[in-house]
Design a protein that fits this description.
Largest sheet: 4 strands, antiparallel
Structural class: alpha+beta
Family: Belongs to the UPF0702 family.
Membrane topology: Multi-pass membrane protein
Pfam family, one: DUF421
Number of helices: 8
Protein name: DUF421 domain-containing protein
Subcellular location: Cell membrane
Strand order of the largest sheet: 2-1-3-4
Shape: flat
Number of strands: 8
Radius of gyration: 27 Å
Amino acid sequence: MEDILQQGGQIALTALGSLAALFLLTKLSGNKQVSQMNLFDYVMGITIGSIAAEMASELESPLRPLWAMVVYGLTAWGIALLTNRSIRVRRFITGKPLILMDSGVIYRKNLRRARMDLNEFLMYCRVSGYFDLNQIQTAILEHNGTVTFLPAAMQRPVTPADLSMQPRQELLQTPVVQDGRVLPENLQKAGRDGVWLERKLREKGYHGPEEVLLAMAAGGDQLAVYPMETKKEAREMP
């Protein structure tokens, strides 16, 4: 029984150690979503994760997979520095974008280089909202595997600049109340204080922050308030 408890404790320690090492190496490599990773980042992430899983169950010599994780992590970090400083290394590691379509011409050679057939290309077009290829000026395969589109001039949405308009710039909203609690740091960052918040809540019919689920401060004197309780029932999705 003592051996089982001892072994279980050792597994728990190695698992926590592998989790801590994986967290530190992930922070070292930078915050990226899966859609932002290139092929090299993806392979390195899988490899480091596999080594971390091995370390969690390694009882005899847990330092061996730990050192392997450190080597992989430092290698990925070093390559990231090189790709930031050298265009040649960046092109070799991450590759270059490929133009798949431009001005009504689909480049079959680049489709083959991208290991993509016409059906896949049409799927990417439809996913991005283009069911008519005449609406596309240029389609580019990015190095992270996504396809980006430049719409034809007559198909893109009208912008205020097209109409010679000068709309007011919207500012980033800052949450100052969440779940009935005031967030003093956010209130200070928004350039406001408790007196202003209390006044704005009274103007909107609230007796205090405890009645507020969420309050967002924007530029000027604006405060968007969402009540803690509402009489309106949420509609069901069809």
